[in-house]
Amino acid sequence: MTRQPDVDWTEELALPYVRLCYRFINESFFQGPRRLLDYLVLYLEQGRYVLTVEGTEYELLEGEFALIQPGWLFTTRGYGQCIVPNAHLDFFYRPRREESFVTTPGMTSLEGYSELVQPRLNDLPGVDVPVKFRPKRPVECRDTLYRMIEHFKGNDLRSALQVQKLALELLLHMIGDNELPVSAGFAEQQFRAKMNAFFSFRLSAPLSVGDMAEHAGYSESHFSALFARSFDTTPHRHLLLLRVERAKELLASTPLKLDLIADYCGFADAAHFSKVFKRETGLSPRDYRRRERGAT
Predict the structure, then answer these.
(1) Residues 152 and 210 grouped into a single domain
(2) CA 267/CA 269 separation, integer angstroms
(3) The model's pTM
(4) CA-CA-CA-CA torsion for 159, 161, 162, 163, nearest 10 degrees?
């Protein structure tokens, strides 16, 4: 099946939304052609099930899984008594996802619904989930789907959270244990976010490069090189600027005294804070506060 131009993992937020999740039970049947806005995950518990996806026929035997991805043209046919636990779901966040729906046979064009169509997993770098996918731990994958079905019956918040958690587990079963390639931008974005959160939490405490490297899980030399590449400055310089920015916020929005702001922002004392602040902003803390508050 034709792949669309690669979509970067950084552009898509994996936040499942399960639309329908149940055990489909039916005698011999045929469902006509359609295309989906969302994903359809199938497990054949009993019977014989044939999928035709984009012109290729796939026979699903008992104990096997299948995945229909958004936009693929497909039909389904069952022989004998078929029991098919399944889930219709979005894997990626879309603002209007509650407006999306399970398409019906005969709906072969998705024109007019482009904002509701999910990105396909197989368009993401490093991912190639076949129609008949074989999870490395099939029993765990099957049980994940079964638990999703049970929790989906509930209408309370706990059940909804469990369904979302299990849908993420299902996604992990499908993409397997292989390392997924990501762009350098994705890795740096993750590193920057984690380090900024760590700095914010530890802003008032002394921090050495060793402390930072240990938190990040790298040697000091590797950490410093990665930090310079990601932030275009040194760790201590970046931390200093964060402290000055936090001090600006406190000066502008609170009546806190300078010695307390100095303490909260990780400066040795009020004198040290005032010296650094003026060097970085061109204003003393008092002058900055006066300007921001419009005082004369």
Answers:
(1) no
(2) 6
(3) 0.73
(4) 90
Buried b (16+ CB within 10 A) or exposed e, 153-179: eeeeeeeeebbbebbebbbebbbeeee
Residue 2 falls within a domain, yes or no? no
Please list the residues that pair with 26 across neighbouring strands.
82
Question: What total number of domains does the chain contain?
Answer: 2
Q: Is 50 left (phi over 0), alpha (psi -120 to 50) or beta?
A: beta
For the segment 69-124, what is each residue's pLDDT rounded down to a tens digit? 999 999 999 999 999 999 999 999 999 999 999 999 999 999 999 999 999 999 88
Q: Is residue 163 part of a domain?
A: yes
Burial of residue 282 (number of CB atoms within 10 Å: 0-12, 13-18, 19+):
exposed
**Type of residue at 247:** A
Residues facing 87 on adjacent strands = 21, 41
